[in-house]
Amino acid sequence: MIVPFFEVTTGVAIYINPAFVISLRPDPADPEGSSVLKLSDGETLRIRGSHDDVASRLRKTTAAA
Predict the structure, then answer these.
(1) Domain residue ranges in the chain
(2) 14 neighbors 6 (Cβ within 8 angstroms)
(3) Helix, strand or coil for residue 50?
């Protein structure tokens, strides 16, 4: 299952497979508005959404699969 998000800097849509997410943490620059995802290929993404919101969306998708 793929989950759509928006990248913080450019605002473009990105689609993430939760199975490839290694870590999720609040973005230090904007902890309430964005999060930092690290993927298994080493890429780090800054996405819109608080840590709790992003974690909930990723968890729901994983549980539904």
Answers:
(1) 3-64
(2) yes
(3) coil
Contacts of 28 (CB under 8 A, 6+ apart): none
**Which helix (H) or strand (E) covers residue 53, if one does?**
helix 51-64
Q: Under DSSP, is residue 56 helix (H, G, I), strand (E, B) or coil?
A: helix
Beta-sheet strands, E only, within the chain: 3-6, 13-16, 21-26, 34-39, 44-48
Phi then psi for residue 36, to 5 deg, are: -115, 125
pLDDT at residue 37 in the model: 96
Task: For residue range 27-40, list pLDDT tens digits in order.
Answer: 999 999 999 999 99
Q: How far apart are CA 64 and CA 29, in angstroms?
A: 32
